[in-house]
# Entry
Amino acid sequence: MRSRYCRRAKPSRGDAQAAPPVTGHRHGHRSRSLLGTFGKVEIAVPRARLNTPDGKTSEWKSRALRAYQRRTLAADALIASCYLAGTNTRRVRRALGALFGGAVGKDTVSRVWRKVKSDWDAWNARALAEEPIVRLILDGTVVRVRLDRKATAVSLLVVIGVRADGQKVLLAVKAMGGESTEAWRAVLDDLIRRGLRRPEFLIVDGAPGLEAAIAAVWDGVPVQRCTVHKHRNLLAHAPERLREEITADYNDMIYAATREEIEKRRKAFIRKWRLKHRAVADSLAEAGDRLFTFTRLPPSQWRSVRTTNAIERLHEEFKRRIKTQTVLPSADTAAMLFWALLASGQINMRKVDGWQTLATKPIDQPIDLAA
# Structure
């Protein structure tokens, strides 16, 4: 033991052994303000000097309270979650003003948000070789960001993977100028560079740039064109008075119960609309057998592979969250915010329908395109 202010330990009475050497000494404390979910408090942080091998001393540093730390991790998490819930920086300040006693300004919210960037950078660089991905869903969406002090539209290119157990997982989200072949090729090349295995099935929105990029890196992989996107294409080729009839015929074809019934109704659709409004029939024929690739899989999977709805739902939720901001600060912020909504648990993805039969390989026979 050593007495107060004593820097060298004294041996106990009757103890012949020398006292163990000390590693340093206390010298008071300093006051620190810490903001937590309980409000602002003052903490007395001990001060100490530690002996070094060269005979000098160094300042002791607390591992529990980092240098310059002004908020607890729980407070930072609360601020970030409010921002992710769709509230802009000023509204976060007002919403949390009562809890934090007005100590949270919009600059504080921005600093907390920037701390997320280190996790975002690590996520973008992570290896994918151990991910048991068997299927990919690819789509893009347009958001407005500030570029050179002007609002500019950029595309967020999103890739969702489906693991062998059916669980969906976000693999990539990149901010690009558009959905060109070069843009999509950059996204796919990055996934491959990080070890992503060749997928067994692809679901796309039908954008020409994406399809060209896929053909360059994964030629021969079965590709499903989104049936919802094609429905929109058909309606765009027809006058408004025909759209209800087109929708009824299209749904009867796409949602038929068997592969044979789908083939039969496709032929009927082509024959009817070639006579009634040829542009509609030509638009359907343009998709070829890729619109019906889902029929090569077990019927239990049809619902999950017919469309890119898994990504469309994310797009809708993302845009709902950023509605209060209108224009995001930068393209990188837009991509990082999209990722953070899933990484933080604000948005969850469930398993795909029919995941029990994911191990079943697609049959080699495409649908009959004869009209």
Q: What stands out?
A: Residues 23 and 55 are 11 Å apart (CA to CA).
